[in-house]
Design brief:
Distance between the termini: 33 Å
Oligomer: single chain
Structural class: alpha/beta
Number of strands: 13
Radius of gyration: 20 Å
Length: 385
């Protein structure tokens, strides 16, 4: 857990329910009538995925897609973590295989997004960056204690394409430059904020065991493939769910306010305008300068996130977000982001992260001059086919 030590560990809150389990190295499978639950079991690595784990999940999902006796899937983490995205320690030891890893991750994320049966992503703990790709489904559940962050630029890398495309959708839901803020600053958001942004579709209590038992009790046959029955089960257990473009709690609060938008619920009371002002522009240099000028701990924390990231990674991530806003196909954008990530994994920024992690030292903070020193050609070379 050499590189992942940079991410703060959290107390265990994930619990499972009793069911026959087929133990595997990277995941376990729990079965009930018509349902399969994949549990990620690499909690010592924040449930981050190496190539074996990605391949294993893809294989299982592919088999179940063709199995008429399987009507729905649940993907769940444990020990306080849902998924940490790509395994940084594995990547540090297998840099020449980066393209293979990102290709395998892209295959899994695309399969989930196009899956012919309902998939529930139970984000029962921390979800980091590319791990959001495992929740590329209609049913994205967050427990009360869940958190989400995008740490990849701080490792000298970029988030995967599916995760970035999903974050771009959050811009539309929230009316805020959420993708830029989250992916560039690396700041974590809470379960409530995940709901307000649309990162999660349903919020449940921390006792996901009871919900898992209830889901398992339903006979998931062919007539349940469209998820209507699943919606009924979730309605019984969720504290908060989205409906249409706004979430139901926001709609209720707005109604209580008599439709006055000034009284509408705020993601970050008193700070939303700072997010818009700093992250609503296309120039990362301008974002940096605006954050330096803005008062208060919120802006300073966001600036600290930029200072903790590699300049080339920040610029590449911002360009990927701009590409995602053009709404490319999932396959094309996954291939593009995988190409960029693979090249960065074999580049000097990631090498410096490995060097400092190995020597147990802190890398120097990125400065605005460092950001300005990265040329357009350097960034473009990461995107060239």
């Amino acid at each position: 857990m050499l590189l992942r030590a940079a991410l703060r560990a959290r107390p265990s809150c994930a619990r499972g329910f009793s069911a026959p389990a087929l133990a595997r190295t990277e995941t376990t499978v729990e079965e009930s009538e018509g349902m399969r639950m994949i549990k990620l079991c690499r909690s010592e690595e924040l449930n981050s995925m190496n190539d074996d784990m990605a391949t294993e999940i893809y294989r299982k999902l592919s088999i179940w897609a063709e199995n008429d006796s399987v009507g729905m899937i649940v993907i769940q983490g444990q020990n306080g973590f849902f998924c940490g995205g790509a395994d940084m320690d594995w990547l540090a030891a297998h840099r020449s295989e980066a393209a293979q890893l990102y290709g395998s991750l892209g295959d899994v994320y695309q399969l989930i997004s196009e899956y012919p049966k309902p998939i529930v992503a139970m984000m029962n703990g921390d979800t980091s960056g590319s791990g959001f790709g495992l929740a590329n489904t209609r049913f994205r559940l967050a427990t009360d204690g869940a958190r989400f962050s995008v740490p990849e630029p701080s490792f000298g890398l970029v988030p995967d394409g599916p995760a970035l495309k999903m974050l771009v959708k959050c811009d539309e839901l929230s009316g805020l430059p959420a993708a830029n803020y989250l992916a560039l600053s690396g700041q974590p958001v809470s379960s409530d904020e995940m709901m307000m942004l649309g990162i999660a579709s349903h919020q449940i209590g921390d006792d996901e065991e009871a919900l898992a038992r209830q889901i398992a009790a339903v006979s998931w046959g062919k007539d349940k493939l469209h998820g209507s029955e699943l919606e009924k089960v979730l309605d019984l257990y969720c504290d908060w769910k989205t409906s249409g473009g706004l979430n139901s709690r926001a709609e209720a609060l707005l109604e209580e306010a008599g439709g006055d938008m000034d009284c509408a619920p705020k993601l970050w009371p008193g700070e939303e305008q700072k997010v818009i002002e700093a992250f609503g522009c296309d120039s990362l240099v301008e974002t940096w300068e605006r954050l330096e000028a803005l008062p208060g701990p919120f802006a300073q924390a966001a600036l600290g996130g930029l200072q903790a990231a590699a300049p080339i990674s920040l610029l590449a991530t911002q360009r990927l977000i701009q590409e995602a806003k053009r709404k490319p196909s999932t396959a094309a954008f996954s291939a593009l982001s995988a190409r960029v990530a693979s090249r960065l994994a074999n580049g000097p920024a990631f090498a410096k992260v490995i060097e400092h992690a190995t020597s147990d030292s802190q890398p120097p903070a990125t400065s605005l001059d460092d950001l300005k020193a990265v040329s357009e050609d350097q960034v473009s070379s990461l995107f060239t086919p």
